[in-house]
Design goal:
By secondary structure, the protein is of the alpha/beta class. The protein folds into three domains: 204 residues, FAD/NAD(P)-binding domain (3-Layer(bba) Sandwich); 157 residues, D-Amino Acid Oxidase, Chain A, domain 2, CATH 3.30.9; 48 residues, no CATH class. The chain contains 13 helices and 17 strands. It has an eight-stranded mixed beta sheet with strand order 3-5-4-11-12-13-10-14. Strands 1, 2, 6, 7, 8, 9 and 15 form a seven-stranded mixed beta sheet that branches. The protein starts with a helix and ends with a helix.
Length: 420
Amino acid sequence: MDDNFGFEREAALNKEESFDALIVGAGPAGSFAAERLARGGARVALFDGRPAEDAKACGGGVTSKALKAWPFLLEAGGRLVSEVEMCSPAGRSVRLELSEPFAIYSRRALDSHLRERARRAGAEVFEGRVSAATARNETGEWVVHARGGESWSGRVLVAADGANSPIARRLAGALTNSEMEVAFGYRTPLAETDDAPTVIAFLPGWAGYAWAFPRLDHISFGIATAQDTFDHKALDRLLWGFMVGYYRRRAGGLSPLWSSTAEPSLEAGGCEIEERLRRVAERYAARIPGLAPETFDARRAAGDDWALLGDAAGFADPVTGEGIFYALRSAELFADAFLRGEVSAYEAMWRADFGRELRRASQMRRRFYGDFWGGAFTDRMIGFARLHRGIRRTLCELVVGDQSYLDLKPTLARRAAWPL
């Protein structure tokens, strides 16, 4: 009797659980898709392979466009921001007062909130890394395996596991280093009552920017730049200069965050600030997709029984690296296609919805971080914004997500004619 019980237990452990959809990755894209599918009656397995203490490297900014589309995001406990300081590579700055706030989240808090929404909707959440089998099972379903030997099968396989997704590489092809950005940075302490400023600073000598995003209990500092020109030592030193300059300014200092030499001075107390920060700062890093226009044209994000969402599909703004809006929107579009029984229709849906916008951003990226009238375009842009309210308004709308790249040029031309 005991032997028979042991046999039955082993058989039960080896048996594949079958689902309508297997979603690998429980960030915003995967969790929101799982919630939508479960609410529509599908049986969904959501696999969360990221350890709880390992939050994604991300500024955590969620645009007002996203907050208006999905108001439940406000329940995740973000910090609302209505003013941003934007710094040029040469050290000039402009303060932007936003007509609508955006929110800054801890990715631990945001991801956890969305994952729990999916669980409450009926999705089954499994912790731990899984890999997709190269062959289907005998019934033609996809299979994913955990390291412990467990396996699950499903009719549709969804990759929502980030820019490094091995499933996306297999289904849609690998991306080159020139189509990847690197984001890295540090989390540093912040008192709950601290009214710390939000800063975006364009890099001197690199295509990209640094950020200081205060959250509810800490500040996220980071840099995002192209992977193929990444110089970790130089950029890390630049980021530390930015961090020290930020804290010095908050303590009453007047020195700029950036300088023309690309490394702010650490004199007058800066060394002590840096020593203190190095004892408490928590480092993070990740990759972000930044696809070329031709890749947007050719790379597919869906087939008859598979789909790619969010960063795994390459859905991030090539200029800013912002991807949370596109993660959520791609999840929404995919869920609509799935629940209609036409998974492959998701391909045409994302292209019609936001594909042209991302492709246009990709075309603009080189010019945005290039030269204009003998200097960096970002420096000229901030110089104009300091003087002209029409340019300032357009920058505000870009920050909150309300200004499309598709009509950016005519908008700037029209508003440049406004009185100063």
